[in-house]
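Input (structure):
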């Protein structure tokens, strides 16, 4: 069995030139670029349900079938709802597509050749400054992270929706997150982790609806822009906003003590935060972290949490290409 990282690349001047980029990342092998296969459109994120790959662009959603040989076949196109991030519920054949200003679309993909929009969640107060930054799924609850972009604003919050009946989502609770201006978040067991502007917050999931106490760590001159939790560790990408527009760090955070998360090692990343595409995706397989950004696809050895090391970088052309979306496939 082989493990493949599938991302995409696109010429920033010619968006029609879009393709899936496939890299073999099978453990105990040197990562190698396998192929570049043309795709239907430019996508911002991927989600995997069964053998199908669900891809979200700015204005729609396409579904591809992945064969055992990693051949990719377009099954369907769904227009009218696209966005920045996909969260999938494989057990229910549902995908949730996050759009920064439109909210979240809930799409039924049980028949991949004919996906359908079941409902949408559109918080009434979204605006130019109040945007939807991230979304996660926890059981029958969908958590939306709302971020206030205004410097002096304090309207940051988490909206908790009951999606047990996906065609009729119900708002259950609004939980404030001030003073943390959250950009990305993730959960692990009873803990919810929020990273944002100059801050890293830990809240208790059990008492979340009662606005329980939280732990706050200051992160001076840093903005959290991507977050992945795996076991007892978190992988947090932060942009050094106060000094440079192209500097970020991958931090490894020990989560074994929720009351005192420990920042361990970090490694420098080059990411163009002035580009029109700042999406960052991460997946972990074994002791490797695969990270996709506007600079390309990186493979990072995280076996030593105090010394993460970038071992490989894939950029499929000498021309500057932007990459987005990431999934790990297992094929024969």
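Output (sequence):
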């Amino acid at each position: 069995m082989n493990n493949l990282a599938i991302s995409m690349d696109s010429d920033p001047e010619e968006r029609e030139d879009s393709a899936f980029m496939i890299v073999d990342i099978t453990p105990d092998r040197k990562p190698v670029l396998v192929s570049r296969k043309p795709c239907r459109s430019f996508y911002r994120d991927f989600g995997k349900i069964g053998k199908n790959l669900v891809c979200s662009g700015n204005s729609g959603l396409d579904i591809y079938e992945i064969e055992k040989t990693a051949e990719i076949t377009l099954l369907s196109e769904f227009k009218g709802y696209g966005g920045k991030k996909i969260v999938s519920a494989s057990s229910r054949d549902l995908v949730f597509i996050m759009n920064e200003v439109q909210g979240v679309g809930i799409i039924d993909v049980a028949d991949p050749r004919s996906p359908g929009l079941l409902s949408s969640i559109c918080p009434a107060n979204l605006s130019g400054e109040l945007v939807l930054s991230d979304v996660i799924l926890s059981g029958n609850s969908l958590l939306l992270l709302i971020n206030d972009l205004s410097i002096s604003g304090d309207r940051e919050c988490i909206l908790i929706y009951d999606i047990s009946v996906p065609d009729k989502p119900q708002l259950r609770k609004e939980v404030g997150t001030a003073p943390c201006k959250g950009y990305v978040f993730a959960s692990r067991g009873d803990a919810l982790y929020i990273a944002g502007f100059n801050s890293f917050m830990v809240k208790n999931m059990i008492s979340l609806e009662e606005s329980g106490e939280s732990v706050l760590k200051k992160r001076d001159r840093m903005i959290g822009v991507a977050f992945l939790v795996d076991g007892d560790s978190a992988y947090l990408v932060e942009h050094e906003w106060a000094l440079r527009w192209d500097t970020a760090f991958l931090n490894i955070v020990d989560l074994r003590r929720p009351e005192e998360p420990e920042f361990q090692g970090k490694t420098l990343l080059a990411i163009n935060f002035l580009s029109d595409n700042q999406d960052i995706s991460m997946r972990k397989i074994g002791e490797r972290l695969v990270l996709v950004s506007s600079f390309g696809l990186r493979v990072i050895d995280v076996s030593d949490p105090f010394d993460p090391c970038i071992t490989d970088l894939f950029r499929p052309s000498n021309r500057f290409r932007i990459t987005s979306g990431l999934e790990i496939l297992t094929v024969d």
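Notes: Residues 190 and 205 are 5 Å apart (CA to CA). The chain has no helices and 27 strands.
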